[in-house]
Amino acid sequence: MKYIKSLLIVLSILIFTGCDSILDLDPQQSIDTNLVLTTAENIELTLVGTYPIVRDAYGQNMFHFSELLADNGEFEFRGTFSQPRDLINKDLVDNFSWGNDAWNLAYDAINRTNIVLDYKDVLAESDRDEISGQAMFLRGLMYFDMVRFYAKPYVAGQANNQPGVPLMLHSNFDVSKVEYPERATVDAVYDQAISDLSMAKTLLGEDSFYANRFAAAAILSRIYLQKGMYEEAAIEANYVITEGGFDLTEVPFDAYNNETNGFEDVFTFQQNNDDNIGESNAGMATFYASTDATGRSDFQITNVETDKYEAGDLRGEIQTDLDEDSKINDVKSIYYLGFGSNSTGGNYCAKWLDFKTNLTFIRLAEMYLTRAEGNFEAGTTLGATPLDDINKIRYRAGLVLIGSVTQSIIRNERKLELAFEGFRLHDIKRWKESVGTLAYDDPSLVMPIPKREIDVNDKLTQNEGY
């Protein structure tokens, strides 16, 4: 693939900047791996450098894909960029720039994880499992979400032989040896993601600044839920809930915009103020926020969304006591009346409020909702009853407890709790719902394979409709 050719040149510089002994590359198009990849430090730097790339794939692109493609009137886009409007209108083309960017970031990250795994033998034995597990976590995560966006949806109970995305499981520093694989089936990509994350769960420890075994279990629960493997989803979610030592915040708003990991955070992508120009959470806060300090006020939230919440639901309260003299720290509700120089009025979502806060990715609340749905659909009560889990989420939201639970109630609580966190499109597809008049498997809800990839690899086929 074309992007890999440039990556092989750039990667040699970016990953190992600061190591003088390896900066003189001759020729530039290849790397002497015996020289570069013989130290544990360089392998560890490769892994550390992969996390911001994966973070940016979500913060700049994939979270937007899920929420905007699934939009059915919840957003009023007030900005000038064409990409969000194209996503909302389901009007994409095969050279859609954000789609190209996400593809490049994902395969850049995958190649780096392959480097770590291919050269893990240089690591100290005491570090090998942890570092290998983190690489497998990131690779499995990337393949899972790439196949969810760039392929027709997985449908439970049938063979999923539709084209997925290319599987690349080994690193390559030599341009002359670049592979041009075809698209693996959706089944095969899911199998690879499960294999990577299952192995990551066994290799990773419980405590890490980056991914740990509970994060791997949480992503496995997402995969099983997407596949309709409900009992397995409940098992993995229950493991996180009962063994992870996490807890819900006292009120919903406190679960977001944390500069360090909060006790509800199963996993976040780390970020600080140095990342606030065109990166990660800036990709979220730039569009979602409308304050004195951050945001373009582009993603205005309409009453189509806010009217979904019952009276008294803390997750749906709109803070209206903000004005031109307010500051970002004055925002205390998940929805708020926009202010600041860019504001055009209207309501905004405070889940993505500030550039310098971590990119929220897996929260304990999701695990309760997954366990509830998994147990309900499987007819099991692993860890708790579905009613108990739903009431736990409702109690935190300030709502009265309910006496019985249905499939509709469980799904609705998930929609309300996880709004604008990157779940909307994926849940619509697995529940076989619709986006307006579009069926869950409509081709316009699938991202195009980048044209430039197809131009250099005749084994790739384009998605329907492009």
Report on this structure.
A hairpin with a 2-residue loop joins strand 8 and strand 9. This protein has 16 helices and nine strands. Among the domains are: 1-184 and 432-466, Serine Threonine Protein Phosphatase 5, Tetratricopeptide repeat (Alpha Horseshoe), CATH 1.25.40; 270-359, no CATH class. It has 466 residues and is mostly helical. The model is unreliable at 1-31 and 276-280 (pLDDT under 50). Helix 5 (97-118) runs antiparallel to helix 6 (125-150), helix 6 runs antiparallel to helix 7 and helix 12 (364-378) runs antiparallel to helix 14. The strands form four sheets. A three-stranded mixed β-sheet has the order 4-5-6, with no helix packed on it. The protein has a two-stranded antiparallel sheet with strand order 1-3.
Question: Any key phrases for this structure?
Answer:
mainly alpha; Serine Threonine Protein Phosphatase 5, Tetratricopeptide repeat; 3-stranded mixed beta sheet; two-stranded antiparallel sheet; 6% strand; globular; disordered N terminus; SusD_RagB_dom; TPR-like_helical_dom_sf; membrane; SusD-like_N
Task: Please name the CATH topology of the domain at 1-184 and 432-466.
Answer: Serine Threonine Protein Phosphatase 5, Tetratricopeptide repeat
What is the distance, rounded to the nearest whole angstrom, between the alpha carbons of the first and last residues? 19 Å
**Count of distinct strands:** 9
Helix content: 40-55%
- Multimeric organization: single chain
Radius of gyration of CA atoms, rounded to a whole number? 22 Å
CATH class descriptor name of the domain at 1-184 and 432-466? Mainly Alpha
Bin the strand percentage. 5-15%
List low-pLDDT spans. Answer: 1-31, 276-280
- Shape field: globular
Structural class: mainly alpha
Mean pLDDT across every amino acid position = 90
**Helical element count?**
16
Biggest sheet features? 3 strands, mixed
CATH architectural group of the domain at 1-184 and 432-466: Alpha Horseshoe
Helix-strand topology string = HHHEHHHHHHEHEHEEEEHHHHEEH
Strand order of the largest sheet: 4-5-6
Subcellular location: Cell outer membrane
Organism: Labilibaculum antarcticum
Keywords: Cell outer membrane, Membrane, Signal
Protein name: RagB/SusD family nutrient uptake outer membrane protein
